[in-house]
Amino acid sequence: MAKKQVPPGPPIADAQDAGKGRLKIIIAIAVAFLLAIGLSIGGTLFFLDKGDDKAAEQPAEAGQTATGKPAAIYEVLMPAFVVNFNHKGRQRYMQVSVALMSRDQLALDALKGHMPLLRNHLVMLFSSQDFAALMTPVGKEMLRQQATSSVQELAQKEVGKLAVEQVLFTNFVLQ
């Protein structure tokens, strides 16, 4: 009797076991990938919700800072102020962008009605300065303080209360 010859090679059972092993690895990788995505989304939502809790713990009154003062309100005066000087026989110019800082929106709104008068006071103040003094940081700070007191006096006179806490220079150019 002749036996049937089986070609040499891996047995059929070993090939099936190898296929199942690869399938298990692929499934494990897919589960790990989905778990990583789930943890990422969960962590993001957890931290975003935690930020909302901090906002709820802040003072109940809107517009309050941590120190208890009302929040600052800024009013930018546009266009920028441009004045000219005659310095040592040469024509010189100064351009100043001004912002008003207040903590009372109603008083600031009342002052807006007097903006032409306020701008006139500031132009007269800026044009009466000495060009050489304005070239120093001390001179610029002195001008800012003078502008603040001038605006505060005008607000007290026209509105009846201190509407502006500070006058700020947001741009200052000398030429």
Automatic annotation (TrEMBL):
It is a single-pass membrane protein. Keywords: Cell inner membrane, Cell membrane, Cell projection, Chemotaxis, Cilium, Flagellar rotation, Flagellum, Membrane, Transmembrane, Transmembrane helix. It is found in: Cell inner membrane; Cell membrane. InterPro entries: FliL. The chain crosses the membrane at residues 25-48. Coiled coil: none annotated. GO terms for biological process: bacterial-type flagellum-dependent swarming motility; chemotaxis. GO terms for cellular component: bacterial-type flagellum basal body; plasma membrane. Belongs to the FliL family. NCBIfam families: PRK05696.1. PANTHER family: FLAGELLAR PROTEIN FLIL. Controls the rotational direction of flagella during chemotaxis. This is Flagellar protein FliL. It comes from Stutzerimonas degradans.
